[in-house]
Amino acid sequence: MTMVFGIPIQALLGQLLVGLINGSFYALLSLGLAVIFGLLRVINFAHGAQYMLGAFVALLALKWAGVPYWAALVVAPLVVGGLSALIERTMLSRLYQLDHLYGLLFTFGLALAVEGGFRWYFGASGQPYSPPAALNGGVNLGFMFLPIYRGWVVVFSLIICLAVWALIEKTQLGAKLRAATENPTLVQSFGINVPLLLTMTYALGAGLAAIAGVLAAPIYQVSPLMGSNIIIVVFAVVVVGGMGSIMGAIVTGYMLGVAEGLTKVFYPEASNIVIFVIMAIVLILRPAGLFGKEA
Length: 295
Fold this sequence. Notes:
By secondary structure, this protein is mainly α. It has one domain (7-132, 149-229). The protein has helices at residues 9-40, 47-65, 69-90, 100-122, 148-170, 172-182, 184-189, 194-220, 226-241, 246-266, 274-285, and strands at residues 3-4, 7-8, 138-140, 145-147. Helix 2 packs parallel to helix 4 (100-122). The longest helix has 32 residues, at 9-40.
């Protein structure tokens, strides 16, 4: 049996896969947070609740209307994004001119209300959500058995992340979004609807969380607590990558997921804290984050 630093290669590669899977969710969720903070300057504590809502929309759509997994990947972000757009336009937009703390407190309270309501109605236990038949089973790679669904999660999340990065950084719409946050008065003078752009930005970030929720449902089950269990780690990922950095959120999400997975092999006791240790080191050496810009 091949060994690496005294560890069987099968165990090492297996945990590397687990790290990539976790990193896929970290990347998607931190990307949504980075989009919202980078363009709206809102620390969106409701992001975990939006992730949970995406999973529940997929589950309830399947139970009540027979909506399959593939359709849920489209329906869930549209539903969650639409609800989030309504909240942004009617409530959150009133806080933009105030200190950032007000937006944080509002989204934190919103997350508690949503998760509390779902926990009261559905209970705290998880509910199963089966992956589509096309993604059942696995592939024998020789050194390990790769579940097809988990491989799909890694590939699809990477595609979504890169597509959003291209949208924000390489398109005319992305340029308008960035300009609207830097100088909204000037942009509005050109006849561009700035409030609509800001609403679309918040809906986009929430939609990314919903996609992550649908992808996570067959792996982690659907629970009202699934958002609160992951959101603190995701905030740590965003801090390491750099608050508001789109590419930083993507790269750091996958990187810290892999670091967490490998830590489970070499030092399992530290696997639950390794991301926070890395965050502390980065904040000491580079407070703006790995990809962030110094103020």
